[in-house]
Amino acid sequence: MWTAAELEKLTPAEQDVAFQASIVTDPDDIPPEFLDRVRSRLLKRLNASSSS
After folding, report:
1. Total structural domains in the chain?
2. Which of 4, 15, 16, 35 is the most buried (most CB within 10 A)?
3. pTM to 2 decimal places
4. Phi, psi (5° rounding) for residue 7?
5. pLDDT tens, 12-49?
6. How many CB atoms lie within 10 A of CB 10?
7. What is the CA radius of gyration of the chain?
8. Whole domain around residue 45: which residue ranges?
9. Cβ neighbours of residue 30 under 8 Å, at least 6 residues apart?
């Protein structure tokens, strides 16, 4: 995890590398608890929009 101050000290190229490194592309690398929270929020929004 980077702080804003740390990111500001990086060159634009270094910022790009840090950003790219932070992207998770394999779902198996995502903590199950996080996926559960995201799934729950998504279902709540879908249910709210379908009942409107």
Report:
1. 1
2. 15
3. 0.56
4. -65, -35
5. 999 999 999 999 999 899 999 999 999 999 999 999 98
6. 13
7. 17
8. 4-50
9. 24
